[in-house]
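WARN retry 2 of 3 for item q-0093 after timeout on previous attempt; input resubmitted unchanged.
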Amino acid sequence: MSNLMRFGAVGDGKADDTEAVRHAVAEGDGMLHFPPGTYRITSTIEVKLTGQGPLGIDGTGGAARVVMAGKGPAFRLVGSHGGTGDPASRKGNVQTHQRMPTIKNIEVEGAHPEADGFELIRTMQPVFEGVMVTRCRHGIHLVERNRNVVISHCHLYFNTGVGIYLDGVNLHQINIASSHISYNRRGGIRIERSEVRNLQITGNDIEYNNFRAHKTEPEPTAEIYVDVSAEGASVNEVTIASNTIQATESPGGANIRIKEKPDASRPPGLFAISGNVIGSQENNVHLTGCYGIALSGNTIYSCGHRNLLIEDSQLVNVSGNTFRRHTPKYGTGVRFERSTDITFAGCAIHDESESGQPKLNALLELADCERINVTGSQFLNGVTGVDAINCAQVVLTGNTICDSRDKPIAKHAVRFSGKDENHLVANNVIGKTSGKPIAGAVQASGNVVSGK
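OK item q-0093 returned
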């Protein structure tokens, strides 16, 4: 292995080891071995994979730290892959010299306000495992084009930018698994101006990614932030599963934020968001301009505004989720705006407070929506269970809507208002309310209205 000590590195955290690392890259055998120690560098170590061959970086079981005291990434890996994941698309020496650059068991710490951890350009099958990046700007920064990226067992912690940043990149096939991604000021995983397919985010702890720990001015961010509002951007084929995704509330913030222009020809779609624990933000899940989203089996708790806010979207299936408040200062509730073809099934929304959800009109709010099916769900202890304004073809069947407080405060179980048409409320169990249990113009049949 290319032991950096043999190339002149000192590793005491004081000496400038930049040239020693570059010497090892240029003259070594491709495996950069950092013995235990702290290696201070002052400018980017750039590895051009086309000429230097396969690359490995190893930090001796996590005992080595690289301190980046200059501007830019500590390490920049540059390949030439311009194809897809298809083996036939690999050109030149991509397979022999550039495949699978592997970075393992090393820490990068920033000592400059514009220091980054790693930047990857046109790479094929890169692997990050057991890597920590802290006090940098961006942790892992993917730009231009990359394919088949694996990031696992990493710590992207307390950076001023983004933990994992897909920034103007064309990237297909990326797996982010079993990592801690937390306290990054501009987001945990952030996608902007990019074309992305086949993204799996699984089994991670993603939390507190906003301004608070950095004591700076707030800006809209999220633990997982997908912004495809730029011209030519699109993100599809995404799985977000089995993660803990939580935060402290921040203005304009969310745990999961997916954002598209309402009139986009290729809105975000083919998303499966399932089996996560999501909580404590202004909006826990906030979707705008999406098409074809499945949100299932999540526990979503404690919002400043809404547990789930969906705007200008179509063909969304929300099933088997639990929505609730966790602490008295937060609320609970779901809202759909200007959306069509929505199924809301097998969910439970529970407000545990004695005074009703703060700032919210109903547990489930529908505004300017069409073709909404709400079935087999429980709406417990809301001031209003379901409130529909200016909607068409809302069907509520087989739900339980009740107030179980010692002193009930519910006004309506279901209320329709505005320009409403063609609604059906059937076969629901409805508890006692102070006003009409079912208010507004609606066809109602087979409902059981209880006095308790």
